[in-house]
Write a structure and sequence with these properties.
InterPro entries: Poly_Biosynth_Transport (IPR050833), Polysacc_synth (IPR002797), WzxE (IPR044550). By secondary structure, this protein is mainly α. It has helices spanning 3-67, 73-83, 87-114, 116-123, 130-155, 159-198, 201-210, 212-215, 224-258, 261-294, 299-326, 328-335, 347-369, 373-399, 401-429. The two termini are 38 Å apart.
Length: 431
């Protein structure tokens, strides 16, 4: 290649990379911003008690957003990254994924419709909101479609498409949530939680229609081997999606019973604040880190990437968390309301726990990328059991809601230590 042409090509690549990075950053910032505004709306219109009452439904919607279509988004990223140079295998895998997702969504929808009154009675303490459960059961088809589109685009490293879906979806979510919560309070907040995830399907459909995959008219394909491979990711997603929210539901019930709805609301607000900023790291690692390690086969190539991203996420988190902690007396009332001032003395536990958790995420993505099902399942279940055991023990010992925060910190410290030791052993054995 002529040197001048090569320089122009490198310049064009750098320009595309900068545009992609800018869009991805904008998408993450807008998603975090929308998450904080949503929490603020719930805090202002429902208060700490209302936040506590809405907690169970928030957990259920979170579970479905991760499990919609079988929770195979990380599987899509992995296999699309592997097969992007093999068009026949790639198209076959997408067809299999579409069939798998549709079957999973149909089963979930039928179960949701059939048990809607029972589910409403448990999460809302009344069967009268069964229609909200029905709405969620139908809306999860939209969740799944978005997961398919973003999974394929991330696997192809088409971060521009992913970023635009997030940006447009965030723009749509905010006014809808504001109107619903302001007009219908508790019911509006419940509905807005569903819209929070389902509205992303609108820009996802737009970009799908513009893509080559729409023009190829890829159908639905059943393939036993393909379904088996995707099932591993469903099991990983199911354990990850269900274990944490299920433990939250158990602990929240005990908080409500022993301390009250306000204490449950304080803890729920902390969870939602954490989810808002931790989402940045999860998506950052899924978009940039996971495709990189999916393409690597040798541990000698994976290990440097792991340590590089580990140091990167720790540095970013420590910087942000330090600012948040120093300004907590201003930021917590600003992001929530004056009712949540008790969180100012507890947020240090959440920030420290999230520091260990975000670092552990890097090792966790290696496990997902290599489809190490047994390790992932054991790790996720162990987290849930340790947190639940410690949380209930501290709560019943008289520590109240502070005991739950301390239990979360201890669990994340333990999981971080075990993950680092496990990765070190894996690295040495593979040399």
């Amino acid at each position: 290649m002529h040197p001048a042409i090569k320089v122009k090509a490198n310049s064009a690549d750098r320009k595309r990379a900068l545009i992609s990075a800018a869009l991805t950053t904008t998408a993450q910032v807008s998603k975090i911003g929308v998450g904080f505004v949503f929490i603020k709306l719930v805090a202002v219109y429902l208060g700490a008690g209302g936040m506590g009452q809405l907690g169970h439904f928030m957990s259920v919607v979170t579970i479905l957003s991760l499990l919609a279509g079988g929770g195979i988004v990380n599987g899509l990223i992995k296999y699309v990254a592997q097969y992007k140079g093999k068009p026949k295998k790639l198209l076959n895998m997408i067809a299999v994924s579409k069939a798998y997702s549709l079957i999973f969504c149909a089963v979930v929808c039928l179960l949701g419709c059939f048990f809607s009154r029972y589910i409403s009675g448990y999460i809302f303490k009344t069967p009268d909101y069964y229609w909200v459960v029905l709405f969620l059961a139908v809306a999860q088809f939209g969740f799944a479609f978005t997961n398919l589109v973003t999974g394929v685009s991330n696997g192809l490293r088409d971060t521009k498409t992913y970023a635009m879906i997030q940006i447009v979806g965030n723009i749509l979510v905010l006014p809808v949530s504001w109107i619903l919560i302001q007009s219908f309070n508790f019911v509006g907040a419940a509905l807005s939680m569903v819209f929070f995830f389902s509205l992303y399907s609108i820009p996802a459909m737009y970009f799908y229609r513009k893509s080559v995959f729409s023009k190829l008219k890829i159908g639905f394909r059943y393939e036993a081997e393909g379904f088996k491979r995707l099932l591993a990711f469903t099991l990983m997603a199911a354990v990850g999606a269900i274990s944490a929210p299920l433990v939250e539901i158990v602990i929240r019930e005990q908080l409500i019973e022993h301390v009250g709805f306000v204490a449950a609301g304080i803890w729920q607000a902390s969870i939602k604040l954490s989810s808002a900023y931790m989402g940045f790291f999860t998506i950052f690692l899924a978009v940039y880190f996971m495709p990189m390690i999916s393409e690597k086969e040798k541990v000698a190539e994976i290990a440097p990437l792991v340590f590089k991203f580990m140091k990167m996420v720790m540095a970013i988190f420590v910087l942000g968390a330090s600012v948040f902690f120093l300004l907590r007396h201003y930021l917590i009332p600003l992001l929530l309301s004056a009712e949540f001032t008790d969180l100012e003395g507890l947020i240090k536990y959440q920030l420290l726990a999230d520091l260990f958790r975000v670092t552990t995420y890097v090792v966790g993505f290696v496990v997902i990328a290599k489809a190490s099902l047994r390790i992932y399942l054991v790790g996720e279940l162990a987290q849930g059991l340790v947190f639940c055991g410690l949380g209930l023990a501290f709560l019943h010992s008289g520590l109240g809601v502070e005991g739950v925060f301390i239990a979360n910190l201890l669990m994340n410290m333990l999981y971080f230590t075990v993950s680092i030791i496990g990765f070190t052993i894996y690295r040495k054995r593979s040399v």
